[in-house]
Write a structure and sequence with these properties.
With 439 residues, the chain is α/β, with parallel strands linked by helices. The chain has 2 domains: 332 residues, 3-Layer(aba) Sandwich (Rossmann fold); 99 residues, ANL, C-terminal domain (GMP Synthetase, Chain A, domain 3, 2-Layer Sandwich), CATH 3.30.300.30. The protein has a 9-stranded mixed beta sheet, sandwiched between helices. Strands 10-11-12-15 form a 4-stranded antiparallel beta sheet. β5, α7 and β6 form a beta-alpha-beta unit. The chain is globular and about 70 Å long. It binds 5'-O-[hydroxy(phenylacetyl)phosphoryl]adenosine (DLL). 5'-O-[hydroxy(phenylacetyl)phosphoryl]adenosine binds next to α5, β7, β8 and β12.
Length: 439
């Protein structure tokens, strides 16, 4: 590998491929990926046939625009394993994230996929100046969520010491941060803000600790939030982007220039389209990010519509990477909510409510932010009969609804049962979500 800009960076990584090398790597990998999906994923093959296309028709990177899009509901419709391009014996890991209704979407990894994921995560940390010897507190949730294990493997590969503390028990997190000499942390931005606030209450001054850097992601945050985080904790905070369908965290990362997130283009091909016309937009114009995996084996994704709204940042980055940059993601083109890093669709809450007898299909989701943490309240109308029930019956109903919501979305919500016709009716689209969170 030649590293044209190696003088600017001590590590020899694909981050510094020349543009020619990068584009030719992408084309080879794209052709291989499309062939793999065509041979193994019936849904993709059918769509290609409908367009009268064959993998061999792909001759240049621009030909990717001829390929069909993939959307979240494709993963739901083929639940659980219908998008897999590897036999189960080669799948070493499954993760899952929210679908649009009750069922999660399932994502799969071969051993090779885990290697790629580990590599992009390690490259992400290296871009943020992390190195062997760092003591990394991993406050992303471990489990089906890709944040925990994704961040874990990458940090270990970097040679860091990982503390798999996961995402709970704030006081213990702060004790560990102080006592173990943590130098770097992974968390959602809102959780890190919460840690800062709690540290003040516990009489810990983060600025006095060895903590120097945070890689934050999994939910939208703003430049103002970064300023506040950095001023209050004395660290440098970097934005990390990713999504389960593509690999998890480690799709894109900021470098010290903090002028957009570099996409690891040798593994992920990025396009930005107008979500209405589905045509590509000019660089610098906002649109929906569309990603194609270039190395994934178990679950290749072709032109996956992320629903995340962003724009390409024009021109080269001062860090010397040729990897294209996207602006930080501030919103989505669908109604998916991100509550404490967990993806929730209003339709999931609706499905959860409808499962419980005694509720009516009139509800409202109210989001607020207290002490930097998202709070969610679901207000739902219940039938006259339920209301007439004795108090015990209502309590039981409340428990059932709460359990139903938690089992579908994975989050606990505050719940208010209200009388029929209490929730405002709308003449047009129902306004189900009231988002009072200010960032
Ligand atoms: O959130 C993966 C991840 C974990 C990314 C840890 C970064 C750090 P999902 O649960 O599948 O995966 O959610 C993906 O979260 O489509 C975005 O809407 C949103 N998102 C992720 N990172 C960012 C970010 C993980 N840095 C969805 N800024 C994505 C804004 C983000 N939104």
């Amino acid at each position: 590998m030649t590293t044209g800009a190696a003088h600017r960076h001590p590590i020899s990584t694909p981050d510094f491929l020349s543009l020619d090398e990068l584009r030719s790597t992408q084309l080879v990998r794209l052709c291989r990926t499309v062939q793999r999906a065509y041979d193994n994923v019936p849904l993709f093959r059918r769509r290609m046939e409908e367009l009268d296309l064959e993998p061999a028709d792909l001759r240049s990177l621009d030909d990717v625009t001829r390929l069909p899009f993939t959307v979240k509901s494709d993963l739901r419709d083929t639940y659980p394993f219908g998008m897999f391009a590897s036999p189960m014996k080669d799948v070493v890991r499954l993760h899952a994230s929210s679908g649009t209704t009750g069922k999660p979407i399932v994502v799969a990894y071969t051993a090779g996929d885990i290697e790629v994921w580990t590599e992009t995560m390690a490259r992400s940390y290296a871009a943020c100046g992390w190195h062997a010897g760092d003591i990394v507190q991993n406050s992303y949730g471990y489990g089906l969520f890709t944040g925990g294990l994704g961040a874990h493997y990458g940090a270990e590969a970097l040679g860091a010491t990982v503390i798999p503390v996961s995402a709970a028990n704030t006081e213990r997190q702060l004790m560990i941060m102080k006592d173990f000499g943590v130098t770097a942390i992974c968390a959602t931005p809102s959780y890190f803000l919460h840690l800062i606030d709690q540290s003040v209450e516990m009489g810990i001054d983060m600025k006095e600790l060895p903590l120097r850097s945070a890689v934050l992601g999994a939910e939208p945050w703003t430049e103002d939030m970064r300023k506040r985080i950095e001023a209050e904790s004395g660290i440098t905070a970097y934005d990390m982007y990713g999504l389960s369908e593509i690999i998890g965290p480690g799709v894109g990362i900021e470098c010290p220039c903090k002028a957009g997130l570099h996409i690891f283009e040798d593994h992920f091909l990025a396009e930005i389209i107008d979500p209405e016309t589905l045509e590509r937009v000019p660089d610098g114009t906002e649109g929906e990010l569309v990603l194609t995996t270039l190395s994934k084996e178990a679950m290749p994704m072709i032109r996956y519509r992320t629903r995340d709204i962003t724009a390409f940042v024009n021109g080269p980055c001062e860090c010397g990477r040729n990897l294209r940059r996207i602006r930080r993601i501030g919103r989505r083109s669908d109604d998916m909510l991100i509550i404490r890093g967990v993806n929730v669709f209003p339709s999931q809450i609706e499905a959860a409510l409808l499962r419980v007898e005694g509720t009516l299909p009139h509800y409202r989701i109210v989001l607020t932010r207290e002490q930097d943490l998202d709070q969610i309240e679901v207000q739902v109308e219940v039938t006259h009969e339920a209301l007439r029930d004795e108090a015990r019956g209502l309590e039981e109903l409340q428990r059932k609804v709460a359990r139903s919501i938690e089992s579908i979305t994975g989050i606990r919500t505050a719940l208010t049962l209200v009388a029929p016709h209490t929730i405002e009716r709308s003449e047009g689209k129902a306004r189900r979500v009231i988002d009072r969170r200010v960032m």
